[in-house]
Amino acid sequence: MSKYIATRAIRGANALVHEADVMLKQALADKGPDTAVAFPNTAYYLPLIYGMTGQKVEKLADLQPALTHAHELLHPLPSSQHWTPYLGETLDSGMATLIAAEVVEAIRFVYGTQPEQMPGFALAGGTAYSNNGNGLVGHLNGPIDDIQLRSWGIALVDGRMPGFAAIVGCAKSNEVAVKLVRELQRRNILTFLSGNVNG
């Protein structure tokens, strides 16, 4: 791994953990420490934090230990003067980023800003949110819920869905992205996208 990538990853981790810190302090002041925290239509705790730390997050106050753990995983930037190993520090910073990102998303659900609204957009599937304007205002998916997980799991096991594809980054254009996704859909492949639009 290059020092260039490691430096940016560590710098980004520090920035996101700081952002999560600021958001959590504000949420605790606005909503109180006993405000419930959960992703909708799920029977599990915040999955990444629970899976990586074993911590069950049920209310805003429970996010503080997770964020403290993220702080413990942060490291200073690699030295530009002398060579020092930095792979472990970069991987730790990546885990800190994942924890902080889940804290940020959980807080956005507390404020009702997730899942993001998109007027006219309709999900294909059975996921319903209580705050989506009685179906008049569309919204993006948000975290995968239990309903989706069960239906996709069955289709993956019985062969109706041969697999899934995760596409990270942006395509040259929206048209190229649509063509790629349509080809995967034609083959019944579950597709996850992460990136921006318009190159």
General description of the model:
With 199 residues, this protein is mainly alpha-helical. The protein folds into 3 domains: 3-111, Helicase, Ruva Protein, domain 3 (Orthogonal Bundle); 116-160, no CATH class; 162-199, no CATH class. Helices cover 49% and strands 5% of the residues. It has helices at residues 3-31, 47-53, 63-73, 87-111, 146-158, 174-186; strands at residues 164-168, 190-194. The chain has a two-stranded parallel ribbon. Helix 6 (174-186) links the parallel strand 1 and strand 2 (190-194).
Keywords:
199 residues; mainly alpha; Helicase, Ruva Protein, domain 3; two-stranded parallel sheet; 6 helices
What does the radius of gyration come to? Answer: 19 Å
Bin the helical content.
40-55%
CATH superfamily of the largest domain: Carbon monoxide dehydrogenase alpha subunit. Chain M, domain 1
Content-based structural category: mainly alpha
SSE order, one letter for each helix or strand: HHHHHEHE
Gross CATH architecture of the largest domain: Orthogonal Bundle
Tally of helical segments: 6
Shape, please?
globular
Beta strands, count: 2
In the CATH scheme, the class of the largest domain would be Mainly Alpha
